Fold these 3 entries.
Entry 1:
Amino acid sequence: MLVSRAVSAAGRYNAIIFTLLATCALALLASCNGAPKAVFTELAEARRLTADLRVQFNKAADASDRAVMADTDPASVAFAHDANQATAAVQKDVAELAPHVHDLGYSNAIDALDAFQKRLKEYLTLDGSILELAVENTNLKAQRLAFGPAREAADSFRDALQTLANDAQPKDRCRVDALVSKAILSVRDIQVLQAPHIAEANDAAMTRIEGQMVALEAGASEALKGLAGFIDAKGRPDLSFALVSLDRFKDLSSQIVTLSRRNSNVRSLALSLREKPALTGACDDSLRALEEALAKESSTATR
C-alpha cells in the first residue's frame, strides 16, 4: 500500500511540473495572441494553486494514515504533526485560490471548488477525530502493560507460590499443590484474556471477557485464602509476597482494561479504513474536476 501511495505521490508531483510548464506556455501564447494579460495571469495562478492544493491534500491524507499505523507514541505524534502541517497548507492554498477562481468567473471551476470546500470540511472533522485517537495509542499502551509490568507481576506471583509449595509439610503437600496450581492458572488465564480484550472492538464482547477476568481473580484470591490454613511461620513471608504480587497484577489488569476500553487505536484504524477513503476520494475528485475546468478554459483562451 505504501509503495502504491509513493507512486501516486510521484505522479502528482509530476503533475505540478506539467502545470507549471503549461502555465509558462500559456503566458507566451497570451503575448502572441494579444489576450488580456491580467486574465492569463489570474488563470495561471489558479492552476498553480490547484496543483499544489492537490499535492498538499494527498500529503495530509498519507501522513494521517501513517499516524494511525505507527507503532510508537513518538512516531504517531510526528506523523500527526506532518498531517496537520499539510492540512494547514491545504487551507492556505484554498484561501488564496478562491478569489482567483471567483474573479475568473468560470462556472465549472467555481462549482468544483465549492464542492471541494464542502467535502474538505467533512474530511477535516473526520481526520481530526482520527488523529486525536491515533496519538492516544491506548491499545498499544495496554499491550505494553500486559507484556511488561503485568507479566512481571504474574511471574513474581508464581515464583512466590512455588517457593511456598516447596516448603509445605509432606502431609499437606497435595492440598497445597492443588491450591497453588489453581491460583497460578487463574492469573495465567487472565493474561491470556488480556490480548483479545485489547484487540476487541465490540463493547459487549469486552464485557464478557471482563466478567471472566473478575471470576478468575476471585478464584486466585480464594486459593490464597485456602493456602493460609496450611502455611506455617516459615511460609508466611512467601504468602504475603504472593498477596502483594496478586494485588499489583489486579491493579495493572484494571489499567489494561481501562486503556483497552478507550480503544483509540482500534477506533482510529476503523475510521481510517471505513469512512476516510470515501471522503478522501471525493475531495480528490473535486480537485481533479477543478484542474480540468481550468485547463479547458486555458485551452479556450489561447485559441
Entry 2:
Amino acid sequence: MHHRDRELRERLPVSLILAVSMIAAGVVYPITDSALKHTSPIMIATLRAFVGGLILVLALPLLRSRLPRSRRLWTWAFAIGFGNTTLTQVGISVGTARAGAAVASVLLNSSPFFVALIARFALDEPITRLRATGLVIGFGGVLLVVFADPGNIAHGTQLAIGFVLALLGAIGWAGGGLGMRVLTQREPHLDIPGHTAAQFLAGGIPLIPLAILHAGTTSWGDPTLIAQLTYLIIGGQVLVYLGFNAALARWPSTRVYSWTFLVPVVAVLIEAVQGKLPGPAATIGIIVAITGVAIVNHPRAEASVANVSTPPAS
C-alpha cells in the first residue's frame, strides 16, 4: 500500500471515523429487524461476512491495498475473523431473532466491559476511575434506551437461546477487536483494508453451510430485501468494520469500544425521524449514553491513562 494513501487516512480524526461507523452500525438494527421478515438470521450473517469480504477484495485495488501475503497474517485473520465476524454476526442476527432487539442489544453492548478487563491484563492498558465511570454511565444509558420498550423482549426458551448467542457475540466482538489491537501494535504498517477483507472471508466460511440449509426461507425476488441486504453488507459490514479497525490501530481498545454505546442511541433517533418519538426513559437514556462516551473520551481520561502507564522518574 502506498505510503501517501496511508498518511492521508491517518490524518482523518479517529472521532470522525468512529462517528460515521457508529451511525452506520445504528442503522443496522432497524434494517435487520425488517429484513428478518423475508430471510433467516443466519443468511443475513453469512451474506454480511462473506459477500462483504468479496466486495472489499474487489475494492482493494482502488484503496491501494491487498490481501495478506504471509501465512502468519492469514492465521491472525482466521482468529480475529472467527471472533468479530463469525460469532458476532451470529450474535447480532440470530440473537436478535431469538431474544428480541432489547436483550441482544444490551448483551452485545456489554463488550466494552470484556475489552476493559482483558485489555487490562493482556495489553497492559490501565483503566482509570474516570474512564471506568464513563463506561458504567454509558452502559446505564444503553439499558434505559433499549428497555424503554418492553415489547422488544422475548420469553422462554427463545430468550435463553438468544441470550447465550448474543453473549457469545459480545465476547467474540471483544476478542476480535483486542486481537486487531495486538496485531496493529506488532505490525504498525498493517494494511487495514486488506486484513479486514481477509477477516470477513475467514469469518464467513464457517457460516456458509448453515446459510445453505436455510436458503429456502429467503425471498430473493423481493426488491426491498435486496436493498436491505445491500446496506447490511456494504454499510453495516464493510464501512463499520473498516472504521472500527482503523480506530483500533490508533486508540486504546477501551476508548474505541466505548463508542458502541452510541449504536442503540442512533437506532432510537432513526425511529424518531420516522415518527416514533422516544419516551422520557429512552430520552434520558440517550443523554446518559452520550455523556458516558464523552467521559471515556475526555482528555483528562486519556491524560490520566498516560500518567498511570508511565512510571515515575527515579
Entry 3:
Amino acid sequence: MTPASALAETVGGVSATASPIANSTGSVTNQAIQVLQGPYITNQYGDGISCQGPTLNVTPFVTGSGSYQKPYEPYYMDPVYDMRDLNDDGSLDNPGNILYHVPTRTGQKDNYNLSVGVSATWSKPLDKKQQDLCKKAAENHNALREQILANRRLEFELTRLSKCGEMKKSGISFHPKSPYYAVCADVVVQNVDTVPSHRHTISPSTVSSSSPSHGSSHSARASALGGTVRLPASPASSTPSSQPSSR
C-alpha cells in the first residue's frame, strides 16, 4: 500500500506560501549638446563680388542637473517582532509583539551633476579654384577703386592749384588767421609778367640835369619837392621810369 503524498502548506500553524516581491526604482536623464553649423564667412567687395572663406565655430557649454527627495529621511526604525514559541505548541506566544526597533539607513541622498566643455567645428569650401578666382576678382576690384580715387585726388589738386594761382595773381588770399589759409598756403606763383602799382622814394642827389625825359621831369619835380612819385603798373620787361640812372 502506497501512502498518499501531501504538500506542506503550514509550518507550526503559520502559512509558508512563497510570495516573492521585487521592487526596482531608478531614473535616467538624457542630456545632449546640439552644435549648429553656421554659414560661411562672406566678404562683400561691391559690384556683386562676394567670397566665402573657412569658418570655425566654437561653442562652450555648461550643463547641470540636480535631484532630491522630500522629506529627507536618512534612517528609519525597522521593528523586530517576537517570534518565540516557548511552550512548543507550534504557535507564537506573542504574535505581533514588537520587541525593539533597529535603525536602518534608507540610502536616500541628493544627486547633482555638472558638465563643462567646448564643442568646435571647422568648415572650409572644397572648390579652391573658384575661391582663387573670387579672390583675384576682389584684388582687381580694389586696385581699380584705388586708381579711381587717385585720379579724383589728382583732379582736386590741379583744380586747387589753378584757382589758388588765379586768386594770388589777382591779389586775393585768405587771412593768415583764417582756418582756410592753409588751402592755398603751398601754392607759388612764378613768371608773372606785370608789375603792380608801387611807390619809389627819389633822393634829390640822384636827379640828372642832362637830357630830361618825360619820366625824369616828373622825378625832378618830385625830388625838388622832397616827396615821392607813384608810377602806374607797367610790364616787368620794361625799365621803370621812376629809377633814373645815376652819374
